[in-house]
Design a protein that fits this description.
Arylsulfatase, C-terminal domain, alpha/beta, 477 residues
Amino acid sequence: MKKPNIIFLIQDQLQQRVFREDSGCILPNLRGLMEDSVVLDHAYSCNAICSPARASLITGTLPHVHGMVDCTHTVPPYRAEYNDQLDTITQAMHDGGYHVSYYGKWHIERTHQLEKFGVDDYETEIHIPGFSVTMEDRVMLTTPGYADKMVCGVFSQGEDCTEEHYIYGKAMADIARSVEQGLPFCTFISTYAPHDPYCVPREVYDLYEGVDIPLPRSFYDPMADKPAIYRRMRSCLSQLTEEDFRKARRCYYSYCSLVDIQVGRLIAYLKEAGIYDNTLIVCMSDHGDMMGAHGLMMKSVESFEEIYNIPLILKLPNSQYAGKRPDFYMGTCEIGPTVLDLAGCRPLSGEYIGSSMVPWLTGEKADTHYAFAEFFGQRYAYTQRIYWENNLKYVFNAFDQDELYDLSIDPDELMNLTDHPAYQERKKALCAKMWEIIKDTQDDTLMDAEYYLMRFAPVGPGEKKRSSSYSVYNKSF
């Protein structure tokens, strides 16, 4: 049986909500791809920032397992060091006879030597040439004592002068070589877009002339019932006007459209080459962006859906299951094992690896599963764990009050139900399931946090699955 070709389209900071019909985002090519695909509406990132989520994608493990718990460029190795002894989906693809290539943003570990992970050809952010642009308009964030920071902007050069156009071109050329040589290929195309700062070509920005891009319903949420750090982070953006937010949203949407244009180029090539039908396309993001929700932008410790609910589009060979929108939950750590299973490659070796969701795709399993995320702070340490199940979402915030949302009645997360009397038993049940994942994956730092002043989860971890290491510093009288 002929192996399916595989393409990962990874966007950085792409919010799932731009794919909604009422979003106003211009995505004709991605919407066309969705018609040929299975669309996972309940896909969730396992972490709110780039490196931890990306390392989880290629290893199938949670950040505390692979070690890259913060972004590679933000902290020294002792704070976040990738375990290069772990198996990867790129190596498994290579072992399965695939020509593996990677173009664009890597941001997984610090060496950028992708041959160590079974990648045959690559060009990452440290190899891609710089692109000089002429800014025509911009929104700046100025804070006393800090360097000025661009939020968004528009430049005069066209889309063919962008990094996104360049890396799609490189990937298509590599695919063409594989086709010529008769090799099955697994190609990763990873764009910086639509990550901040949201800077776009004028010709793409002008597509939104006259298009209504409303502010999110939660824009004016006072967040009085949320952790104080959320309000403190919003205060960092207090100098930005409502018009600044609107311009940033238009630039963000334009950045998404820039990616869509490249996807259109790729799909047209695949169809022309006669390989579209036998290609498995995974379109996804590492995490999302607040983009005005709750008066915030970008991403950090905020646990909101705009950051964690990621787009996940699976175009299977011959468009199998096209149009299906299953209601099960799926996390970053399960994407790789699922694709390996669909491709007929060996599974990832090692411990604490996510499940293949193929039985859920085929309908062999009918439960809705769950999603789980962990956050370790972004330079500043904010320990957090998040558990989703059946439209309920529990957030354990070790730094402040917890959060609980019933997404079936409050999709914008305006009501924190953590203290609501009617939800206490459900909160405890979700918390207990959180502890089971922590114990199953040996997240010892959290599992053993039983010191006198750390016992503030609604329920504790209970009996350990393995005995914790004995410490001479804790006397057992």
